[in-house]
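Please annotate this fold before class:
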Amino acid sequence: MNQQLVRRTEDYLRAMLDRGRFLSANPPEKRYRLEHSYRVANLGRQIAQSEGFDETELVIACLLHDVSYCEDFGETGWAEHGRRSAYLSRPFLESLGLAPDRIDEICYAIAIHVDDRADFPGERTPFALSVGDADNIDRFDVYRIHETLCRDRFLELSPEEKRDYLEQRLPRLRELSGMQMGTKTAEALWGERLSFSIRFFEKLLSQLKCSAGLVE
């Protein structure tokens, strides 16, 4: 992996997140966005190593996939943030001296990671799909379980509300467990994460049912 290019990308990502007004006013959000970007980049590196992709390029793409969080999101900001991240990343990628065709594929990978759409032509190659795959894998990993339960104030819910919460969540996780990925490596990682999440919430639901009294 080209450490110099990766370090420059890390510096660019940090500088861009530092300039965001919303993130500067909400340090936990900025910290989360940076940490998430690193987790996605490490997953991307794992996918690249296993699939034979250029490790440096996929790590850079993953680091930059959410760089548009430096902007103030409007009504459609979240839906557009992949395309905006690609737009913001292109001049930086050009400054790294990457070949134009590699810049195009990296930008396309970043652009489609939210809703599978870009505002410029590109091909849904396994490499291009891997940014969104790494992002999704992180979104259903252990840290996100913790973060989601905290965000939803799970511990403040009544016992009945907790059971309802879990009974609504589990079917969606089971539906997602068979979601297709761009590579066999990502599919294996996805299956592992989803299986863990399902087991975790099933066990939590079982414990809650045992918390209300003696069970038959």
